[in-house]
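Protocol step 4 of 6: structure prediction from sequence.
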Amino acid sequence: MRLSSMRYKNYTWPHNPETFVVEYRRQMAAHKVPFGGCVLQDLGVNCRILRGEGEFAGPGAYEEFKALAAVFQEPGAGIWTFQQIEHNLGKNFFSCCFENEYEHLKDVICTREKYKEF
């Protein structure tokens, strides 16, 4: 089985990143209350953060990096939505492994939390 290369907008990675993480954050503010503890204020959801780690290697590594950097400078979104994924299933766009597991994966969310106590 061959895994399809990862894409973002019109750029296709020559090698998939080793790791890829999507992070959501919620902004909270703690306000000190006179003669007491504190009150928390929910300031809402911040932007989504995408992190990947990998490497470009070989004679054209720097050119590949520059091409990717240019794509990130372009305006507009380049994130997959569930509707876009479902529209492209069965069109030889995704790996067969992803397509076979999609029905299960779309209902699985991995989380990591960090809580602060005041």
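Step 5 (inspection) to follow. DSSP finds three helices and six strands in the chain.
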